[in-house]
C-alpha cells in the first residue's frame, strides 16, 4: 500500500476510536514485512488511566495477524472527527509508552521500524524511525544478562 492509502486507513481507523473523554481520535495502521496490514484505534475508559492508545491496539492486532517480529512500518493519524472525516493539522507521533512498545517489536525483529505520523486531515506528515524517536531505549536486547 502507498503512504497515502495507509494514511487513509489510519484516518478511517481513528473514526472507530472510543474516545469520549479526550475527544481525540487516533488511528494506527501496521504493515508487516510481507505487506500485510492491520489497524487499531484508541480505546478509552471511565477509569482514565486504563485507556489504550491506537498504536498499542494495532500492535496487539499485528501480533495476532503476523507476529510482533514481522513489523516493517506503522502509520499514525490523530485529530477530531468532522464533517469531512478526521480533522486536525498537527502530525501525531507515538507517545512515550507506545515508543517503548514499538522498540520491543524492533529489537525482536532486529531491524528498525519506520513511523509515518500524519495529521488528522492527512495533509501534514513526518517520517521517523523508532530508534530515532527513542534513542538509547531499554528493550529485550538489554535483558540478555538476566537469569
Ligand atoms: N493517544 C494515542 O492513541 N496514541 C498516541 O500516541 C498519543 C495519544 C490517545 C490516548 C488518548 O485516548 C488520547 O489520544 C488523548 O491523549
What features would you describe in this structure?
The protein has a single domain (3-137), classed as Cytidine Deaminase, domain 2 (3-Layer(aba) Sandwich), CATH 3.40.140.10. Helix content is 29%, strand content 27%. The protein has four helices and six strands. The chain has helices at residues 3-14, 54-65, 96-109, 130-133, and strands at residues 25-32, 37-41, 71-82, 85-87, 114-119, 125-129. The N and C termini lie far apart (42 Å). The model has no long low-confidence stretch (mean pLDDT 97). Bound molecules: tetrahydrodeoxyuridine. Tetrahydrodeoxyuridine (THU) is lined by residues 19, 22, 24, 26, 42, 44, 51, 53-55, 94-95, 98.
Short overview:
The protein is of the alpha+beta class and 147 residues long. It has helices spanning 3-14, 54-65, 96-109, 130-133, and strands spanning 25-32, 37-41, 71-82, 85-87, 114-119, 125-129. Strands 1, 2, 3, 4, 5 and 6 form a six-stranded mixed sheet that branches.
Keywords:
single chain, Cytidine Deaminase, domain 2, six-stranded mixed beta sheet, 6 strands, 27% strand, globular, binds tetrahydrodeoxyuridine, cytidine deaminase activity, hydrolase, CMP_dCMP_dom, Cytidine_deaminase-like, Cyt/Deoxycyt_deaminase
Amino acid at each position: 500500500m502507498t503512504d497515502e492509502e495507509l494514511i487513509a486507513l489510519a484516518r478511517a481507523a481513528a473514526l472507530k476510536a472510543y474516545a469520549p473523554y479526550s475527544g481525540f481520535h487516533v488511528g494506527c495502521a501496521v504493515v508487516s514485512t510481507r505487506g500485510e496490514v492491520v489497524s487499531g484505534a484508541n480505546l478509552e475508559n471511565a477509569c482514565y488511566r486504563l485507556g489504550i492508545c491506537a498504536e498499542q491496539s494495532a500492535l496487539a492486532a499485528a501480533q495476532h495477524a503476523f507476529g510482533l517480529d514481522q513489523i516493517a512500518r506503522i502509520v499514525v493519524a490523530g485529530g477530531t472527527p468532522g464533517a469531512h472525516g478526521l480533522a486536525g493539522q498537527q502530525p501525531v507521533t507515538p507517545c512515550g509508552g507506545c515508543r517503548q512498545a514499538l522498540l520491543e517489536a524492533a529489537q525482536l525483529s532486529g531491524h528498525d521500524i519506520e513511523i509515518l505520523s500524519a495529521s488528522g486531515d492527512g495533509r501534514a506528515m513526518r517520517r521517523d524511525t523508532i530508534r530515532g524517536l527513542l534513542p538509547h531505549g531499554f528493550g529485550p536486547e538489554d535483558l540478555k544478562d538476566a537469569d
